[in-house]
Amino acid sequence: MTTPSDNEIIESAVRLVNDGLCVTFPVKGYSMLPFIIGGKESVDLVKPADLQVGHVVLAWVEGCRYVVHRIIRMDGDQVVLMGDGNIAGVEHCLLSDVKALATHVVTPRGRHHALYAPWRRKASRLWCRLLPVRRWILAIYRRTWLKLLYH
Asked: For residues 23 and 43, what is the distance between their CA atoms, to the nearest angstrom?
């Protein structure tokens, strides 16, 4: 028996989302720090509707890979994404390549925290403005707070 690839697993999750189910999906990597901790937290995914700048989505980007990143710009059918933990670089896709909308962060203890609570919306807008100094903030975060939370 073969182990399914990451893309096969993601595509199965997308099919479930398209059928109207909510899927809790683990997140890998640190590209969504400080709002989502990869390897520790998951996100609840639902069928995308009324997408807006600031939403966190699962998308097939640049025709080659899936990412869970935040929409930073929309221009008609064109969507630009960037991970909160990234200090440079963006991904591009079409609106039709956005496969799911993340609604909640799920902690290792199973608690579901709304991604679009008022304080999180304000924090993510502020975080976007802090792009020029994110490198240093993230370095401090990884060396202090993240270690306190999960080590």
From this structure: 8
